[in-house]
Amino acid sequence: MARDLGASDVGASGVAARTGTPGAPVPRPLPGAAVDGPVLRWVPTHEELVYTFGGAAPRQRIVSGTRIVTWTEDCFDGAVKTAADLPSQKMPAGHDNPQTGPFFVEGAEPGDTVAVHLVKVEPARPYAVSSFGPGFGAIVGTDRTAMLGADLPETTWRYDVDATRRVARTTSADGAHAWEVPLSPFLGCLGVAPSMGEVRSTIVPGNFGGNMDCPEVRAGNTVFLSVNVPGALLSFGDGHYAMGEGEIMGAAIEGAMNVEVVVELIKKVATPIPRIENADEVMFVGTGRPLEDAARVAFKAMVGWVRGASGMSDLDAYQFVSQFAKAPIIQLVDPEYTVLVKIDKKRVPARR
């Protein structure tokens, strides 16, 4: 997307916020079926990007039903472009995962939910980069898992994007090998301001969303997040062109994104942890450390959702989830780990 989209063309009024029943599942339309509302076309300047969830003044104000057409910078703040560029030398400290936003959602109050319908998430550049940094990764020594032995060297891989074939290509550091990765773009970060006035780094996931690094934050899905502060203060970024499960080296194939979302406000319904839905599946993102705690958070939420959707008892819902759930590891490199638990909706019995 060119960086000259022009001024905002937000309409005077948007789609009315919806009210749900606390504790009950609220079915949502798919992004393509979202009703027409005002449109905000806005691309932030570099100076308008933010590097925390919470603590930043809103850059734009929107109403429920607004379609946001925008762009996000890569996780390296646009500073790493070639295999010769090392993040430790090119990036200012604290400039990981720059965010587009925050967007102040008119009428959003604590206890409400924002539903972010992802309409478009597509690579905005013909290249992307990945990297390894000493002290960061799932199978190397870190500040929390200290190990003897020398650190592996900081290394960057540049990927060239073939938009026609929808692959990203790179070579080994010595040039002797090459590989292609199919494009599967998603947003690594999508979140709202945390509760209690907290300000969290954009490398951290949590109940507010944040750096979940979840491949399901992609076009065609809807992400539901609880509102913790007036206006919600929604922001997103950290585009991933593709990523393996676990993100074990600490970086995906990272790149700038063209993004289009529709933001809906659901009144008087809280969403304690991030929920993701599409026509076929319901999913929860659990955050925690150790890894089993992240899984427990997501599994507990899923049991509660199945109970609410079907009318089953806690114990029956627990049994049901234990037989039908899938639980891929999203990432185990951030300060908190994330696990996804998902279930095929058509498996869930109807309420009787």
- The shape is globular
- Give the CATH class of the largest domain: Mainly Beta
Q: How many independent structural domains?
A: 2
- Beta content comes to 25-35%
CATH superfamily of the largest domain: Acetamidase/Formamidase-like domains
| β-strand number | 23
Low-confidence stretches: 1-14, 21-28, 30-34
Q: What's the gyration radius in Å?
A: 20 Å
Q: Helix coverage percent of residues?
A: under 10%
**Main pleated-sheet profile:** 10 strands, mixed
Give the CATH architecture of the largest domain. Answer: Sandwich
Structure write-up:
This protein has 2 domains: 18-26 and 33-131 and 180-269, Acetamidase/Formamidase-like domains (Jelly Rolls, Sandwich); 281-347, Endonuclease I-creI (Roll), CATH 3.10.28. It contains 3 helices and 23 strands. The protein has helices at 87-90, 291-310, 314-324; strands at 18-19, 39-41, 52-53, 60-62, 66-72, 99-105, 113-123, 127-132, 155-162, 167-171, 178-182, 186-191, 200-201, 205-206, 209-210, 222-226, 234-242, 253-254, 257-267, 275-277, 281-288, 329-331, 337-344. Strands 1, 2, 5, 7, 16, 19, 20, 21, 22 and 23 form a 10-stranded mixed beta sheet that branches. Strands 4, 6, 12, 14, 15, 17 and 18 form a 7-stranded mixed beta sheet that branches. A 4-stranded antiparallel beta sheet has the order 8-9-10-11, with no helix packed on it. A hairpin with a 3-residue loop joins strand 20 (275-277) and strand 21 (281-288). Helix 2 (291-310) packs across helix 3 (314-324). It starts with 17 loop residues before the first strand and ends in an 8-residue tail after the last strand.
